[in-house]
């Protein structure tokens, strides 16, 4: 009977010893971290309040310049110039050639409407829907096909439409 009781007690004793060693290891790591932080604080140069304020101002200025640079690098949401992207017939993939030419034909219609009159509508809502449907069919037929140039072209046409509508609508006087 004593053997049956001693065995579980022995196993439990080993488990608690292992847990205590794990806690001791964590304690050693914590002490080491404290020593490193203290050493870094001791080696850090002491700054006067004026120097600290100047350093913070320089950091804020650098952060604002970085934010502006990131916005400039991202570029505007609407392209400023129109770049037509048309795929030559011999470069079209066989299984999605029809869908790609349909998309390019729809975009050509918007381009022709834009060139036809400086004040008219570039893309009607029906044309926009047709272009979206054509882009979806291209994406389904040829998943690896780069639609980004077509999306940029469409964004240009939408921006041009918005600009023309804004120019056409007279500014209402404030009452």
How would you summarize the topology of this molecule?
Blueprint: H1 2-43, H2 49-74, H3 97-116, H4 125-141, H5 148-168
Helix pairs in contact: 3-4, 3-5
Structure in a nutshell:
The protein is mostly helical and 175 residues long. It contains five helices and no strands. Helices cover 72% and strands 0% of the residues.
> What is the makeup of the main sheet?
none
**DSSP, total strands:** 0
Distance between the termini: 100 Å
Number of helices: 5
Low-confidence stretches: none
Mean pLDDT: 78
* Beta-strand residue fraction: under 5%
Report the oligomer. Answer: single chain
Structural class: mainly alpha
Number of domains: 2
Estimated radius of gyration: 34 Å
Shape designation: elongated
Q: In sequence order, what are the helices and strands, one letter per element?
A: HHHHH
Report the helical percentage: over 70%
Describe this structure in words.
- With about 180 residues, this protein is mainly alpha-helical.
- The protein has two domains: about 45 residues; about 80 residues, no CATH class.
- Helices cover about 70% and strands about 0% of the residues.
- Helix 3 runs antiparallel to helix 4 and helix 3 packs parallel to helix 5.
- It starts with a helix and ends in a 7-residue tail after the last helix.
List keywords for this structure.
single chain; 175 residues; mainly alpha; 2 domains
């Amino acid at each position: 009977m004593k053997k049956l009781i001693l065995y579980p007690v022995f196993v439990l004793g080993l488990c608690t010893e292992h847990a205590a060693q794990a806690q001791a290891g964590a304690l050693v790591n914590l002490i080491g971290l404290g020593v490193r932080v203290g050493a870094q604080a001791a080696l850090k140069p002491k700054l006067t309040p004026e120097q600290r304020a100047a350093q913070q101002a320089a950091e804020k200025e650098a952060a604002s310049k970085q934010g502006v640079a990131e916005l400039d690098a991202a570029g505007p949401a609407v392209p400023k110039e129109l770049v037509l992207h048309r795929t030559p017939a011999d470069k079209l993939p066989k299984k999605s050639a029809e869908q790609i030419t349909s998309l390019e034909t729809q975009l050509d219609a918007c381009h022709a409407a834009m060139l036809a009159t400086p004040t008219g509508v570039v893309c009607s809502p029906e044309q926009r829907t047709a272009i979206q449907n054509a882009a979806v069919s291209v994406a389904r037929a040829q998943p690896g096909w780069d639609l980004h140039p077509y999306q940029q072209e469409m964004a240009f046409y939408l921006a041009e439409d918005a600009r023309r509508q804004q120019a056409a609508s007279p500014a209402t006087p404030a009452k």
